[in-house]
Protein 1
Amino acid sequence: MNKKNKASAIKIPKILKESKFSPLAIEVVKKLKQSGFKGYLVGGCVRDSLVGIKAKDFDVSTNATPEEVKKIFRSSRIIGKRFRLVHVFSRNELIEVSTFRANASKKDNGSGVIKDSEGKILRDNVWGTLEEDCIRRDFSINALYFDPIENNLCDFHSGLQHIQKKILVSIGNPLIRFEEDPVRSLRAIRFSSKLDFKISNDVKEAIYQKGHLLRNISNARMFDEFCKIFLTKKAFNNFNKLNSFGVLKYLINTDNYVKNSFGLRFQHAALINTDNRLKASKSVTPGFLIAALLWPRLIDISKEKGSLNLRKFFRSMDRIIREQQVLTAVPRKFHGYIKDIWSLQLKLETRLGHQPYKILNHPRFRAAYDFLLLREEAARDSQGIGDWWTQFQKVNRTSKIELLKSLRESRSGPVEKKFGFLEELS
Ligand code: ATP
Ligand code: MG
């Protein structure tokens, strides 16, 4: 029996047969097949369905070229240069249809695959067979091809077995695969957290050895990966894994804080808070998390003899964002947002005169208040400022005046200039 027959003889797990795939994705496969081409659901949607996770997006793989796919679907467009594919869309859904590609190193005929001096693939548009397409995927669990019309599963790299064993295995030598595309090391960490899978030893070794190549990845792609890593309910887990593999520094411009330090406790509080918000279907933004992850560094740079140097604080804000921008593109709209959250921290503490009324109406008040609560959670002396604001928001006008009055009375002498929690500034 040849490899192809062996692959198609696989017994389809019940969980896959009963999975709810997007009707549009199934329609795309159906139409491709009716037009005489092959069509498979592939990648994350097949993997997630087998693990019992609801798939969030659906990719289709075919032997039709982008131009041929485009002809079949009226609502479609060809996108990408490095990696050309077709988006087939309906009003509220989008299916990515990619053409089978050949393994770059095997079919490098100079026409469609371009690599840089460190082995990174810059362009990857050499068409190939299903088997060849399989080989160029990153991990065996991502290389399962499912034809939902004929209930046929192609698995050339024991992906199904690895899903059952809960292990992430590279297709081919991970040292070479991570050179071709260093982002695969981040993907390995992300999938292991998402699926609760172990990472095979050779993949672990490749992350250690090739992680440094992440320096060469564009900041736009790193930002995409940043969002997938930190805004999909596994931020805390991913942060710790990235740190232990020594690759966190390519995603966030933070120092390595020691266990039990304010910096690390605050970062952890922000990551756990992000995960919990997502689990409760609350909104999250990368801006808030970036503001939090960089906060300990801002404080470190701005502190002087146990208190905050305000000039340094305001000057350093732009610098820190600029430095982060080199690692991951930070969309412009978040720059002001991050700086607002940071500078509001000062005002939330001082609460001078009638300012608290103004602060309540500030468009970033809610984010800044949440941020303050996280700082308090991480600091061992909270000073009750968060509580004060919780009260101030809730109560009526008369009680607001009372709150401000008692605040004034509680302050002996001139308003405290000192900002920050003791531990934060230690
Ligand atoms: P998720 O959508 O949960 O992030 P996914 O596996 O669907 O996971 P995508 O980035 O959507 O990830 O990619 C779809 C498929 O394309 C993957 O399952 C994998 O087979 C292949 N793929 C994506 N990125 C790479 C890569 N950098 N190297 C090799 N194959 C990749
Ligand atoms: Mg996907």
Protein 2
Amino acid sequence: MSSKIFKAILLIAFSTLLGTLLIITVCMFDYFGTVQKNQLVGELSIAARGTEVAGKDFLNQLDLKNYRITWVAKDGTVLFDNEINPANMENHADREEIKEAFEHGTGSSSRYSKTLTKKTVYEAVRLTDGTVLRISAGRITVFVLLLSMIQPILIVSIFVVILSAVLGKRMAKRIVEPLNRLDLDNPLENDTYEELSPLLRCIQGQQREIQRTLACLKQKRDEFNQITGNMRESLILLDNAGAIITINLSAKKLFRVTDTCIGRNIIEVDRHQNIRDFMQKSMENGHAEFRENRNGREYQFDLSRIVSDDAVVGTVILAFDITEQAEAERGRREFTANVSHELKTPLQGIIGYTDLMESGLAKSEDIPRFVGYIKKEASRLVTLIEDIIRLSQLDEGTDMPVSEVSLGHLADEVCKTLFDAAKSKNISLSWSGADGNMYGVKRLLYEIVYNLCDNAITYNRSGGSVKITVSEDDKNVRLEVADTGIGIPAEHQERVFERFYRVDKSHSKQSGGTGLGLSIVKHAVAYHHGKIALESEPNKGTVITVAFPKKSLV
Ligand code: ADP
């Protein structure tokens, strides 16, 4: 700053100095010209008077150092010259000042003298005898004039430099000091020079703008944190070098990290090879995804490259807990495979018997037996398909008609339906207890009672019993089906509710079981928001209890 001010002052001072010098030189040059002319005229007048009286002798005795005197005859012949031999001089009649003096008595001119080889001033006067006396002197030049002033110019220049440096420093201090004292947090409260007001107003405006923008950014960041903080999905934003910019609560739990991981590279924070590999893939392809088990649950990781203005600015990692979904997928796959298998077996049996009959290999007395097999397998297929349809209806959770149902009446109905089946196996079947009125889907409740009783008969022994008990209190209705059958070993008890799970496959199939009965029961109970419990001891029997809230479906 001081150096700039110094330079500016120096420039102004030197420009002024140069201008002044120019004017002074012009004035002085003019002044010295007039003085010289007057001196020449004075000297010429003295010399003219002397020449009038003593002629050449007067001129010869003159001690002339600064002037040149030339005496010219009427015809222009040079009679005398104090610097050059007149014999060597040409005729001077055509010289401007001499011509003028011949004509008007006096003459003057100024020109470059070939003789003296310099700019010369001439003054001439005609004497009484008609001759002309001329005096001349070298004209003072601008260069000489300047040369004569060199010393004062130098002194003034040095003075100007010193003065400019001192003034520059002082002015810079005076300008800068108030600037240094400025309170930029409150620009308009500064008491400083007026010229700064527009700047301070501008700063104030910009400050307001910055504050507004910051508040807006903060609000947006808070909103973002609020949204991502409450997300169940894990979210991590990385910059283009892989450093963590943002990580939400769910992701912190998943990766078992705290806020200190912000700014660190994801590869350092999470040492799993998959993250490293799929980061690379997402950088190359724009997107990558993988599944991985973490903390005992299954997660899907989605990695997407973020591009802005054709440049990669970062990566976003989203992780979803897909444990239930994956289990459901697995279940569906297993179910499809089981369904295919279960459908295929009876169909193969049917095709086998029909092939035998068609080829004529079957004896005519065997044909009724084969038809019986075919009928049995076909009805197994129908039962299986009906069970699958029921299960898929329950899976879809479609609304079914709800009405007031008496569980006691249903138990009675089931007893009547299964009476023959129980009797054929020498099993006593009975029900007792309350009406057990509740709101529910009659068809589903019937299925529950029927399947439980059917199993209790199927997996029983000759001479055994099946007892159905219905009880109720203010809130719940309970159904208990107890048998004295083969029982279920402890390790199978959890799994008998799975689709197509059978403890003894051959026994189940022989008795026409589909392996879906208890699965349907479980879903139908869940549909009514009920609870199911199983107690069983091998060779002693099984007790299955179901508790329904009376008004859960109202
Ligand atoms: P299934 O059509 O084979 O009877 P379920 O789903 O009804 O299929 O039953 C699954 C398996 O549970 C049966 O195969 C059987 O092994 C066992 N099970 C069910 N109920 C009883 C019971 N009361 N006593 C003993 N085992 C049973």
